[in-house]
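User: Let's play a game. I give you a shape written as tokens, and you guess the letters that built it. Ready? Here's round one.
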């Protein structure tokens, strides 16, 4: 019975975790008109900031789980909550924008980049 419970807990946490797609140049190309001058390095920076900051309070969300409009509303709210929790600004406006651009770009990424 204990083994079954333990297996259930592991399965639950595995189901809650998100495997984020690895950004590729095609992702950058797809949003090049929206974000002129945006590079693969910029996209990877956004991914890294997302991974290292957004999981401070909750599990990472799949970028495809929200629309662009939702992400544009959610990210500033979450950054305000994080800053309040920490008692000081955690990320710069540029870093917050980097996370937002990453989420917007990767919400329409193909599964082949994983």
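Assistant: Ready! My guess for every position:
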């Amino acid at each position: 019975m204990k083994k079954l419970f333990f297996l259930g807990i592991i399965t639950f946490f595995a189901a809650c975790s998100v495997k984020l797609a690895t950004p590729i140049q095609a992702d950058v190309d797809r949003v090049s008109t929206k974000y002129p001058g945006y590079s693969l390095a910029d996209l990877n920076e956004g991914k890294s900031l997302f991974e290292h900051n957004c999981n401070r309070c909750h599990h990472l969300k799949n970028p495809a789980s929200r629309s662009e409009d939702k992400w544009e509303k959610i990210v500033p709210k979450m950054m305000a909550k994080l800053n309040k929790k920490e008692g000081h600004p955690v990320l710069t406006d540029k870093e917050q924008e980097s996370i937002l651009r990453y989420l917007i770009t990767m919400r329409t990424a193909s599964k082949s980049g994983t």
